[in-house]
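G., before I forget:
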Amino acid sequence: MSRQSSRGTALTIASLIAALALALGLSACGGGGGIGGGGDKEAETVKLEGKPSGSLTISNWPLYIDSGTVPAFEKASGVSVKYIEDVNDNNSFFGKMQPLLSQGQSGGRSVFVVTDWMAAKMRELGYLQNLDKSAIPNVEANLAKSLRHPSFDPNRDFSVPWQTGLGGLIVRKDLAPNIHSVCDLFDPQYKGKVDFLNEVIETVPLVMACEGVEPDSASEADWTKAIDKIGKAVEEGQIRRFTGNDYARDLTSGDAVAVIGWSGDAVQLQADNPNIEFRMPTEGCSLWSDNMVIPVGAPNPTAGEAWMNYVYDPEVQANIAEYVNYVTPVEGVKEVLAEREPALAKNQLIFPSEAFTKNCFTQPKLSAEELQKVTQAYDAVING
Amino acid sequence: MTLRRRIVPYLLLGPGTIWLLLFFVVPLFYMAELSLRSGTFGNYEFTWHWANYSEALDLYDTQLVRSFLYAGVATLIALLIAYPLAYTIAFKAGRWRNALLFAVVAPFFTTYLIRTIAWETILSDDSPVTKVLHAIGLAPSGHVLATGGAVIAGLTYNFLPFMILPIYASLERIDVRLIEAARDLYSSAAQAFWRVTLPLSAPGVIAGTLLTFIPAAGDYVNAQFLGGAGNQMIGNVIQALYLSQSNYPSAAALSFVLMALIMVAVVIYIRFAGSEALMGEESR
């Protein structure tokens, strides 16, 4: 073999190996097959057909329901339910569903659960159907007053809250007793010991609020200023990392002494470690809901609405609330739990009083374009 | 008869070719097409928008450089760990050889993700490892987790078997009589190693470094779990572009930039380090 051709062989082998590795790498990145919005902007209303029957597929977040409710619903309605916990965060669920939804398909799902801003985004893209309210009288009757007219869906035409909660501070009171405001997270004495959330819409409004800016009326400059503040903290090593629910690990080990986090997690973490507690920021908290929605192309919406109606029965909802420890959107649950488990009924994080949440604000409503802009700026900070 | 003979190789190549076409070439084509689109989410249109490429290079040069640096350092450390280990298994392990090989492969019985998350505990601020590193001055800030060092450590650990196995395979094939001959001709043990063993094992070293470096440069899991703010890699940027921003054209363009840069790096590497080593015995 000549020197030249053996070099050629070497190159061939190397490029084959490279191609293989790249193929593996690329496949991990996932892909957006079909790109594009879904048809009409004018949403259709679901078409109901008589009594609920057949099968029903529901996508929800992990650990977001007790074990008894689904079988009880199956028994009561005669519908067989496939309940899958495949929503891990709004963005990756969107990434997974978008190619289907843009083709008017839902991958067999009749109902799935996403957070306010994601529901708004999907709605804007024409991915969600309107609900037929005649089939959900329990929702009409029992939905908490404060949740009836959110800015992204003023008449609750296409979304029904699954659970709601508060976004604020979770602290290790033994390690960071003096953190009371989101702005305290920027205090140099906690350098490298605080985590922020990787969802822009959760984090940035809280930072704006502690700076005295009202999130709902914030200008683009306000967003930029808050994101820059976070960016500067990253450069100085103040912020340890950006997380989802996995801040739980850092708090438990003490690697983080304070994080921006969600009330329901705090309740569960505190049960294991009494030193962990939710703290209402002095400037207020963010209020969010995860919402049940019916996507375009959803099979069997009749059963889907029957499910929504079923979980809005206070007796049923009490079982869910007892398990998940978030804020229930259903009225009458507190009374049910007051008898069954008085401690829960008194917990401000599960049944917050108006006084407790008086400074809190709902997540600001952004257009798709604005959301894209702030997400890009925030991701640049996260991955900086 | 001759016709059949001519067709058979093509038939044998068939399944592999179809597989590659369907799952590599076709998606690659779509990616390329996607990378040249412009517009906003919902209406990305194909417009030969080459600016996606220049923007990708412009905006994310920091992360590109960082990824190559992390992957390079991890590859080097993996090589330094893997070579002596592979050498020991190939020549000194005796009846322990299979057990040791099994130990090298054993971590694969647990998924990649779990192994990486386990490192969060190992490198946690209060862990003995971190305390020791801090005491000897290797972790001045008092924490290892959520630093670039932790990302490099994770990459090294996760890809180490890809370095060990090819090196072992090439060492194991070496005819020990060649080394004995070198000693008989009055070379010292060190000389025999440098002039006989090392060159003969070079193909394994080349393959190992490539199999480590290429996936490490595009990895995002280690940076996500072990890294913190300020040390994310290019894979994390691509992931964020795809999933959180739904900016598919930029993500696709950046993937191609990464691919091209890796390709260039590999070609340069092969030309300088590889040509000698990969020539094989037959050309000598």
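Residues 280-284 of chain B have pLDDT under 50 and may be disordered. The CA atoms of residues 81 and 160 of chain B lie 8 Å apart.

More on Monday.
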